[in-house]
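Submission checklist for the structure archive. All mandatory fields must be present; incomplete records are returned to the submitter.

[x] Identifier: Major facilitator superfamily (MFS) profile domain-containing protein
[x] Organism: Aureobasidium pullulans
[x] Residue count: 114
[x] Sequence attached
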Amino acid sequence: MGLWYTFGIALFAAIGTFLFGFDTGIATTTIAHQSWIDYMNHPSKGLTGAVVAVYIAGEALGALTQTAVGDRLGRLRFMQALCVVVTIGTVIQTASVNIGMFLAGRVLAGYAVG
């Protein structure tokens, strides 16, 4: 059991790291699609770059504040709460009708994974 347990933990951690990088980078392909550019009413290059930047800014803010919040809520409740927050952020991004709403969803999702 010891070897398989260790392997399982390492695999789970690797999948988490993969998803972290995938989520950060997937926006690059999204903002390059002409359909997204048209739907978002041709945002400026600055706003388009902000799509990636605000996610990373949200991650940084989350990394700085989550320790204090996690200590108060406890590890299990805190992780459950962050799962809800990242889901809300993802729903906002998916349902966004303008670039501001999309950026707000990116910040929220970024905070949750920070």
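[x] Structure attached
Curator remark: The helical segments are 2-32, 34-39, 45-73, 75-95, 99-113. The chain has a mean pLDDT of 89.
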